[in-house]
Amino acid sequence: MNDRIEKVSIIVSKGSLEGVYPALIMANGARAEGMEANLFFTFFGLDAINKRRYQDVKVATVGNPGLHLSTMLGGLPGASAVMTHVLEKKMDKLDIPPIPEFLEMIADTGAGLYGCKASCDLFDLAMEDLIDQVKDIITVGEFYELAAGGQIIFT
User: Fold this and answer.
1) Cα separation of 142 and 116, whole Å?
2) Tally of domains in the chain
3) Cα distances (angstroms) measured from residue 37 to each of 34, 44, 105, 146, 150
4) What is the 3-state secondary structure (H, E, C) of 60-75?
5) In sequence order, what are the residues at sequence separation of 6 or more whose Cβ sits closer than 8 angstroms to the Cβ of residue 73?
6) Does the pTM of the predicted model rise above 0.85?
7) Which of 15, 19, 53, 103 has the fewest CB atoms within 10 Å, i.e. is most exposed?
8) 70 in a domain, yes or no?
9) What's the start-to-end Cα distance of the chain, in Å?
10) What is the pLDDT, as a whole number, of residue 1?
11) Which residues are within 8 A (CB) of 36 and not within 5 positions of it... i.e. 6 or more apart?
12) Which PANTHER family does the entry mention (predicted)?
């Protein structure tokens, strides 16, 4: 029996910095290990591949227990922008690329980037609204076909 993972399909459902980066890091790691990798962007995760939004993904400061901020502090004007700036500086020091560059890099390795048809319909998005690296907008059934025989990861 082969215990080696050969393929991962990663569902990206959150449109925040801390929701997108784990998926990108996991997909990049999978490709570096020679695994097939596909990313399925659904609901607010579509912000990561939306041409109008993917360069401005921010940290969610309200209701984010990992930040250890009260809801009042997290909701202050500018809190999200400040936390995003702080994290982006730290990631830059660690040589972690910004989301647009990371998406391009991952797609260039052969990973598949896909938009969720139901979510695209919900938010009135078409292929021309998504970044060039997106291969297609697919249904959940088509995603399951792509994922067959591999591991599904939900971030």
Assistant:
1) 10
2) 1
3) 9, 20, 13, 10, 9
4) CCCCCHHHCCCHHHHC
5) 61, 79
6) yes
7) 53
8) no
9) 28
10) 56
11) 6, 7, 8, 30, 110, 111, 150
12) CONSERVED WITHIN P. AEROPHILUM (PTHR34655), PEROXIREDOXIN FAMILY PROTEIN (PTHR34655:SF2)
Q: How far apart are CA 140 and CA 41, in angstroms?
A: 11
Long-range contacts of 133-139 (CB under 8 A, 24+ apart): 133/49, 133/103, 133/104, 133/106, 133/107, 134/41, 134/49, 138/40, 138/114
Angle at 148 between CA 146 and CA 150, to 5 degrees: 105
Structure tokens belonging to residue 78? 């500018």
User: Whole domain around residue 118: which residue ranges?
Assistant: 9-59+98-154
Q: Bridge partners of 19? A: none
Task: Answer yes or no: is 80 within a domain.
Answer: no
Structural domain contains residue 126: yes
Which CATH number do you get for residue 146?
3.40.1260.10
The confidence score (pLDDT) of residue 150 equals: 96
Instruction: Name the one residue in this structure whose structure tokens are 């607010």.
Output: 44
Which tokens sit at 82? Answer: 């400040």
Query: How does DSSP assign the chain, residue by residue?
Result: ---S--EEEEEE---SHHHHHHHHHHHHHHHHTT-EEEEEE-GGGGGGTBTTTTT------TT-GGGT--HHHHTSTTHHHHHHHHHHHHHHHTTPPPHHHHHHHHHHTT-EEEEEHHHHHHTT--GGGB-TT--EEE-HHHHHHHHTTSEEEE-
